[in-house]
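Per your request, structure below.
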């Protein structure tokens, strides 16, 4: 049971519960577009949170909101590049 929760690389030998060695081949999943879309949705939510902070009548909250928005815009640029 010890080896069940260890990370394995594609094609790396693993030991099944019976004890026989097998070769495990993992087919690569091309999920870049899905990852990109989810990342953009998360960034949009964070930008919305930053805008909400900017609406608060507190200078420190306003600064935090602006910094959050700037960080998320940089994160979007990072995903695109």
């Amino acid at each position: 049971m010890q080896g069940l929760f260890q990370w394995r690389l594609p094609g790396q030998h693993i030991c099944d519960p019976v004890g026989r060695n097998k070769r495990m081949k993992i087919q690569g999943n091309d999920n870049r577009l899905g990852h990109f879309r989810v990342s953009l949705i998360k960034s949009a939510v964070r930008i919305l949170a930053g805008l909400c902070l900017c609406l608060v009548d507190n200078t420190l909250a306003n600064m935090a909101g602006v910094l959050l928005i700037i960080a998320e815009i940089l994160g979007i640029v990072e995903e695109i590049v």
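DSSP finds two helices and two strands in the chain.

Regards,
D.
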